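Dataset card, provenance and construction

Sequences and ligand SMILES were collected as paired inputs. For each pair, a complete structure of the chain with the small molecule in place was predicted and serialized as structure tokens. The example below shows a pair involving zinc ion. Curators did not alter the output after generation; any descriptive sentences attached to a record were derived from the structure itself.
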Amino acid sequence: MSGNKPTYDPARIEPQRQEAWEQRGDYSAPPRPEPGQTPIYVKASSPFTSGNLHMGHVRDYSLGDAYARFHRARGDAVLLGFGFDAFGLPAELAAIERQVLPSDWVRQCGDRMLAQMKRLGYSFDYDRVFYSSDESFYRWSQWLFLTLLEMDMIYSEDATVDWCDTCQTTLATIQVEEGGTCWRCHNEVRLIRRPTWFLRITPYLEENDENTGKLANWNELALATQHYILGRSEGVELELEGSGGKLTVFTPHREFAGHASFVLLSPRHPEVDAWIAADEVREQLEQMRSGGWERSARDASAVPLFDTGATLAGPGGGELPVLVSPLVDARFGPTAALGIPLVDEADRDLAARAERVASFEAAEEGEAPAPAPVVAAGEAKRYRANDFSISRQRSWGTPIPIIHCESCGAVPVPVEDLPVELPRDLVPSGEGNPLAERPDFVDVACPKCGEPARRETDTLDCHFDALFLWVPAAVPPEARAEQMFTHEELRDWLPAERLVAGGDSGGFVFDQRTVTKALRDHGEFAFMENGEPFAGCLFHEMVIADGRKMSKHLGNVVDPDELVAEYGADTVRLAVLYAAGPAKTLNWSDGAVRFANRFLRNLWTYSHDRFAQLPDLAHDPEAAADTEHMRDRLRKWCDNGLERITADTAELQMHKSIRNITRLFERIQDFEKRVVKRRGQLDRADAEAQIAALVLLAQVLAPFAPHTAEEILLASGRPDGADLVGSWPERAEIPVGEDSAAAAP
Ligand SMILES: [Zn+2]
Ligand SMILES: [Zn+2]
């Protein structure tokens, strides 16, 4: 028996299985789901084209791939979609550093990452892979911009940006060094005001809020991010009158509104101007607006604050000074709030800094202030979530489809003229604005009056491209240029059955939910009635090492390639899934890899030995009858195990599935030990029951360690082909009774 026992050699078997999958075309999404088939679109996160998968990606894709394989085995129509978030600063900075074309760099990085993904055995539909920097993609970013502009969800407003006089360029926050100097020339950076495009998300805040309570297949981590981003405060609002007219003010402290001693107004409140009389106060407002307070702390003792000099009649009598501070935005959005130092610590800090407000000492411990509700106050709520800027002064991004004309102003590019192409031969240097220096890009005729005009040279932030990054995989590549939002397959796959993404994706997802609702109302996504792009959502935490975030600087980066080279893809996949539940941070250790590798190795050897021994075993009806109760117990173990593994995998609790797989293996070995202890050896009936159990085990292992599982199934005698893994077992078919052994050849 021991003559040519095959050893477990992932470096040999994994490429073989991958080639078989590719030849079989296993993982292309079906052209259309068949009648009665459940469409399952699994959307994994879209990485930046950094050139290297990190362990966080491995975690993400191992989860998504296992889930997709599980559903394929259940007979569902599965689309495992993938695409790159390819525009943006990281690629531009890499191109500047290397003096290469960003488009070349992105493609090079993408190719390398796709090769890594294939080596890990992920069953994405690789024919549907896309890059957000593809023309067929960004023409739709431009279409979306124009559509939202028409819906008044996009507007232009002055905003504060960092500017380097030496490099003649605006800087992203990460390009400003600590101490406020430029990353490139190290000269001092200053803040300037320039027109910026904003996305208005407020029209859908309330609906997003209501829906968040109904999202059944979202895990807690994912839901928590949505609640956090909304930042809902409940309370009351009332109308006050004063020197600037009427003003609606909000407070979360409904019982204590009568104790208010000032009103705090957001510098972005639409009516703020009415409360500014003196020139010097206006100057303070301007200063606050240009002071970069977006970056400042939410700390009430340091946040910018000024007194307008205006007053309002207080709800509890007396006059309330009107103060302005962005602290309102950070707590309740761009609104007006009552300052109630008596019960609110942040208000107490502000009161201490305002001359016209009496200082308050915190109430003594255990001494509750007397309630002072206001009768005329109505129920109200506020959201902290707010509009955000979507344009950047960068050259590696989607060109904004706007033309500036001296007589007509900002004119949208007509839809039939899309895409506004980004010059492909642009090499950014980090100096100036390369797009603005290209006459072939900038100089155009105004679409309205035909006079010479200039193209907008800002580009869209890649966050804007991400608003529909979940869409293209659901559209066949050849149809994307024309039918990105109208293709019939969209109705098959959307909403996505499951989004699998990192815990830091909450902002992206929130904005994707907003835009889905806008496109529902505009018509394209009318078939998604609740405006939710993801029926289910699994957010997972990140992978760290030695209790710290992985970083080159700390020298604790775990390289997936090295792990795959040493242990094989299946070991890495199994380890990353087994080591922690998705909602927990995974602190990487070699222990998990060693455990996974030992398990696969043992299972491999054990199964191959049992398959090889079977023909030598004799059948004795009397012996078989004596161990029938043991086979029956094995069947029950298998049934129980299968039931749990099925339920946990459907819930994406892969760590539990794998724990139950390893337990089931222990029980299969235990069965043999017990039979041998009782009778000295296995009867053929026992061996057949055991092999059926091993085959079942390989089938349920397939979503997690697909190469090893398929090789074991091949060794069990199953023919290679599309049906190698077979359909996911409904229950354990373990031969127990006497007649089953007799029926064997
Ligand atoms: Zn500079
Ligand atoms: Zn014009």
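Derived descriptions for this record:
Confidence is low (pLDDT under 50) at residues 741-745.
The chain is about 40% helix and 20% strand.
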